[in-house]
Amino acid sequence: MKISSPKTKIVCTIGPASENPDVMKQMIEAGMNVARLNFSHGDFASHGKVIGNLRAVSALLGRRIAILADLSGPKMRIGTFASEPIQLDTGDLFTLTTEDIVGDRNRVSVSFDRLPKSVRPGDMLFLNDGYIQLKVNEARGNDVLCSVMVGGELRSRKGLNLPGIDLGISAFTERDRECLQFALENGVDAVSQSFVEGPEDVEAVRRAAADMGYTPFVIAKIERSGALDRIEEIIAAADGIMIARGDLGVEVPIEQIAMVQKRVMLLANMCAKPVITATQMLESMTENRRPTRAEATDVANAILDGTDCVMLSGESAMGRYPVEAVGMLAKIALSAEAHRSMIAVKEMFKGIDLRGRVRLEHLIAIGVEACFEFVTPAAVFVPTRSGATARSMARFRFPVWTVAVSSEESTCQELLFSSGVYPVRELPMPENWNDYVKRQVADLGLEGKIAILTRGPSREHSETNHGVEILDLTI
Ligand SMILES: Nc1ncnc2c1ncn2[C@@H]1O[C@H](COP(=O)(O)OP(=O)(O)OP(=O)(O)O)[C@@H](O)[C@H]1O
Ligand SMILES: CC(=O)C(=O)O
Ligand SMILES: [K+]
Ligand SMILES: [Mg+2]
To answer: Is 208 exposed, middle or buried (CB count within 10 Å of its CB: 0-12, 13-18, 19+)?
Structure first.
């Protein structure tokens, strides 16, 4: 199959607007690489059905799709309204209650029992990713009485944030454990944990999964200000990260989001961990056929800065134009990638603490970069067992595909989160790499007179030396 897709990977949240198999098919054809199931919404039956349909459509099209299960973490949410949306106006009084009631424009329930004890008069509370702001007047029994400072439209199950208030709950909750078990038993490829604050939150997910007999790819969602203080440790502990700008834009002053995004992205790139930029990327396409200039620019800038994946949330979950939104991301990505400079290998290594020890992996990357100064090869072929070698190459954003060849199905699935990586499963692994590379270059429709093949010792071939080979495709 010829590759025509952008190198940037596209993650789409599946919801009512996209759970029809025909829409899924169109989304895959438009460029979706990863389907995200948000376990904050829907029930197990609906998620189970979506997983089955995604696998069926992916098999039908012969296109690899990864499934990401997003675990809610300790996100507080409001309950439901009898009729919605409700309109809150500045100056209105509005009560949050821990009683299990059906809400109206005066009152709504919240999912956190200790809320009245956790807040004090004057505290600011944020609803629906901060669109609505409340000020606490008083906590009385089960109720928190508030004044609306910034009003707006409010719907059932929207999030509630209390920036800066320590709720004393760890990220991985009992509910997350149930969702994790369901997701793993249903064969998802990766899980993302919300509201991670330190490496121990990532470890909690890994331990729980291990107890269930699984070793999933774990993505840490960066959406708490506390996570930024321990970002290096979190990146080291996780397999990838998501810059979850919905909650992050409430928990951190919104004027700092751009700089936080750039800093976190660079750190993840240096560590060769894939990074997803998420939320409001094409927000206006929830209702409109075309994005705003600001949105189109935001997507392109994230790609130029080094994101591996761009993500759709409400646009694909509940919007009017899920397929068009995927197509728009793909078009913007193809256009931006043509202008992205290779991240200079030597420059990047300056940012990594090598402690005076240059690893062979680094020298190989420098060798590959040197080739690009003279000639553009058809592709960089990387045999890889865990995927780490492929990611360590692809982080430099070479202008050609990194074709990752692995005998492991899970490795191929996990590489769908990495920009510029085209995973191919081979079982058994090729014997004659010269012939194999030539055949793949032709099959994938790649162009060039040479190809690069990197090698490293693996568990299967521990005797192999690290190396870079330049293969002449003309003979
Ligand atoms: N499985 C689903 N079923 C119904 N609605 C969904 C589903 N998934 C997403 N949605 C809708 O799409 C919206 C946007 O999705 P998104 O994943 O960004 O959720 P969110 O509520 O903002 O929370 P989070 O911070 O967990 O991402 C949701 O608020 C919800 O209204
Ligand atoms: C995706 C997500 O959780 C957020 O943006 O907050
Ligand atoms: K979630
Ligand atoms: Mg969030």
So the answer is: middle
In a domain, 144, yes or no: yes
Identify the residue whose C-alpha is closest to ligand 1 atom 2: 15
Please say if the pLDDT value at position 463 is more than 60: no
Residue with CA closest to ligand 2 atom 2: 244
Q: In the structure, what pLDDT confidence band is assigned to residue 166 with cuts at 50, 70 and 90? A: confident
Q: Could you tell me the CATH number of the domain that includes residue 241?
A: 3.20.20.60
Is 320 catalytic? The answer is no
Bridge partners of residue 70, in order along the sequence: 38, 192
For residue 315, report the distance from its CA to the centre of ligand 2, in Å: 13
Alpha carbon of 321 to ligand 2 centroid (Å): 20
Domain that holds residue 377: 345-472
Q: Which helix (H) or strand (E) holds 76?
A: strand 76-77
Task: Write down the ipTM of this complex.
Answer: 0.96
Q: How many domains does the chain have?
A: 3
**Domain-located, residue 330:** yes
Neighbours of 370 (CB within 10 A): 11
pTM for this one? 0.94
Mean pLDDT is lowest, of 96-110, 308-322, 457-471, for: 457-471
Q: How far is ligand 4, taken at its centre, from the CA of residue 224, in Å?
A: 9
How would you classify the pairing of strands 159-161 and 76-77?
A: antiparallel
Active site residue 221: yes
- The answer, yes or no, to whether any atom of ligand 2 lies below 6 A from the CB of 194, is yes
CA of 313, closest atom in ligand 1: 18
Asked if 201 and 224 count as a contact pair (C-beta separation under 8 A), the reply is no
Q: Model confidence over 186-223: pLDDT tens digits?
A: 999 999 999 999 999 999 999 999 999 999 999 999 99
Peptide bond before 428: cis, by omega within 30 degrees of 0?
yes
Domain membership of residue 3 (yes or no) is no
pLDDT tens-digit series, residues 277-286: 999 999 999 9
* Boundary of a domain, candidates 336, 368, 391: 336
Indicate if 127 and 184 belong to the same structural domain.
no
pLDDT-derived band at 460, boundaries 50, 70, 90: low
Per DSSP, the three-state class of 277 is: strand
The alpha carbon dihedral of 72, 77, 80, 85 has a sign of negative
Q: Where residue 357 falls among pLDDT bands split at 50, 70, 90?
A: low
Ligand 2 closest atom vs CA 159: 6
